Amino acid sequence: MEMSKHDHVLFALISQYQTLAMVGLGKIQNPASGETERDLDQARAFIDVLEMFKVKCRQDTPDQLLRLLDAAVMDLQLNYVDELKKDRKHEAEAKEESGEAEPEDAAGEAADEPGSADEGETT
What we know:
The chain is mostly helical. It is about 65% helix and about 0% strand.
């Protein structure tokens, strides 16, 4: 099946948002500045948009694009969780060093992870 003009635009958006999310995760350099930056809120926003694309684009979208979208979201979600774990580890180490060690709150973890809500919306 040949890709339409709109399919090409969707492909470009998926690729662009995946790149921007990876920049926000600090996994690749910002192409504009050449610096490695980390902004998990920005990364999460792009991951959320890609997740929305997954839900909304199931019909009339070529399988090639659906596979790209699925792979992009999965890769970004795994990297996002990895970065959250790094932050939590650094925070715990800082508290230990300052003598302010507190028990971890496991109940709030799922709410910070992309894909933790509305997963059942796929069609």
